[in-house]
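#structure-requests
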Amino acid sequence: MASFMLMLRQKRSRKAEDDPGFKLRALLDDKVQILCHRSSSRSPFLQYRALHLADLITELNGFCGFMSILSSMRYCLGPPDKLTNIWAALAFMPFGLFFDFMDGKVARWRHKSSLMGQELDSLADLVSFGISPAVCAFALGLRTPIDTLLLSFFVLCGLTRLARFNVTVSSLPKDATGKSKYFEGTPIPTTLGIAAGMAVCVSRGLTHESIPGGTMGEGWTEVHAAALVFVGWGCAMVSRSIKIPKP
C-alpha cells in the first residue's frame, strides 16, 4: 500500500512538472528567492535607514572630529607660521561639542534612542575629544618619542573611559528622569580645556621650540613638560574616585 501511494505521488509530480502553469510558478518562486537574497546582501549598506535624527547629529560630531584631525595634518605639511589650518583644527572641536550636546536634546525631545546611538556617541566622542586634541598637540610640537607615547596614553584613557561608561551606565544611580546622577571620572568632552590652552599658546606664538615648560632629558628620553598635562587628564578620565554630578 505504501509503495502504491509513493508511485501515485511520483506520477502526479511528473504531471505537474509537465503543466506550463507549474513551470511558471516555479520560475517565479526562483526569481523571488533571488531578489530576496540580493536585497539581504545589500542590507549592510542601508544602515542609515535605521538611524534616528539624533544619531545623524551624532555623526556630525564625528565629522567635526575628523575634520579637525585633517586640519592638523595639513598644518604639519606647511610652514609653522601659517596658522590657518591649526586654527581650523581647534575650531572644529567646540563644534563637535555642540553636536554632542544637541544629539541628547533631540533624542529626549523625540523620545527615540537606541543602543546603536549610544555606541555612535562614544565613537564620535573618541574621535572629537580624544584623538583630535592629541593630533593637534603633535602638530604644535609634542613630537618626541616619549611625547607620542604619552599622547597615546591619553587617547587610550579616553577609549577606556567611554567603554567603561557603556558597560556601567545601567548600574549607576539614576534620578527621577532616568538619567545617571553623576559621571564616574571626568567626561571626555572636558578635554576641550586642553584645546583652549593650545589656542592660547597658538595666539601667543608658544609652539614648537617655544612650548611652555620646555623639555626634559635628551635624545630618545626627551619629553615636553606640557605632555604631562595629557597624562594627568587621561588619569582623571579613568578615575573611579572622581564623581562629577550631572547638570
